[in-house]
């Protein structure tokens, strides 16, 4: 097959795409971007993207990381708006362009394009009610399961050999279903965080210790902490859950093989989050969970944080959805950067106000 010229592909690409140069200026925008951003290529070319378009994501930092790591980065639920247009929620992918790592290709997948707004809202609320329903079902199924497992255990007393293996299988599998149901219940149960000044290293230690005695026993966990980090404003239990989920994913990614997880905490003032109401807040506390596993399966990379999206056999797909919910309730930010051999989940959090500092 003869491929059409790149220019034709570029202009018929149905999703908004932009090329960004090394100083974060726009070099090219495709017609889909002109329509979506409601801005002409002429008006945008040569200008810095974030001067013209309101994008609720730390773009400067994202671009810098993509250039430094020469790997793609995906962000979900980013609000993008131009001038008079109400912001639209999008997923964005940012990747270095081929040989030239300074030039960046940015693709925007609008989640709620104006004309699809109604439907997208419905999908969201459908997802929400699906979770409510799943929670209710989970609760209802747990009782009869306890009965099944108890009956199998009673039966097993008079059995031997292969028959005993079968009752053991019933018990083991019901236990697995109960665990899965508990996860679903837990997902529906997240209460608003009780915000206090929290030492993030205490949280990380707690998560690390319980990971090492459980699901991450086959992993080495290296601590790389900046001990001078100030406290964050958060709910220690919920934040522990966040790091447990991230450590669990990192440990499971190796599929049982040994591997190393690095927990890296540091201060970076450059990250600011712009809120919908126009106020901004700094998120200077950074914690990265870095693993040397195979990386995130590309097929699910853009939907990682959606509930029930899993790349694992037996995965519920709720771990990262919970991470995303808890961190957004904390006013924080989650980002991912993954290539085979190195996957980084970064959590960015605010600092606790001075009068709340733990003594
Ligand atoms: N560190 C990682 N390395 C490779 N893949 C990952 C990593 N973290 C997440 N993933 C991929 O993202 C998917 C979604 O993760 P998530 O935690 O939401 O669900 P899950 O682990 O499949 O199920 P659950 O956490 O509910 O038991 C995983 O199934 C896995 O394919
Ligand atoms: Mg998980």
Tell me what you see in this structure.
The chain is of the alpha+beta class. It is 40% helix and 25% strand. It has helices spanning 6-12, 31-37, 41-44, 49-52, 59-69, 117-156, 161-188, 200-213, 236-253, 319-329, and strands at 17-20, 26-29, 54-55, 73-81, 88-97, 100-110, 196-198, 219-224, 232-234, 259-267, 272-274, 280-282, 285-291, 333-339, 342-349. Strands 1, 2, 3, 4, 5, 6, 8, 10, 13, 14 and 15 form an 11-stranded mixed β-sheet that branches. A two-stranded antiparallel ribbon has the order 7-9. The termini are far apart. Residues 183, 245, 249-250, 253, 291, 293, 295-297, 300, 304, 309-312, 315-321, 343 line the site of adenosine-5'-triphosphate.
Mean pLDDT across residues: 84
Shape-level CATH architecture of the largest domain: 2-Layer Sandwich
Unreliable residue runs = 113-124
**CATH structural fold name of the largest domain:** Heat Shock Protein 90
Task: Compile the SSE list and pairings.
Layout: H1 6-12, E1 17-20, E2 26-29, H2 31-37, H3 41-44, H4 49-52, E3 54-55, H5 59-69, E4 73-81, E5 88-97, E6 100-110, H6 117-156, H7 161-188, E7 196-198, H8 200-213, E8 219-224, E9 232-234, H9 236-253, E10 259-267, E11 272-274, E12 280-282, E13 285-291, H10 319-329, E14 333-339, E15 342-349
Parallel strand pairs: 8-10
Antiparallel strand pairs: 1-2, 1-6, 3-4, 4-5, 4-14, 5-6, 7-9, 10-13, 11-12, 13-15, 14-15
This protein binds adenosine-5'-triphosphate and magnesium ion.
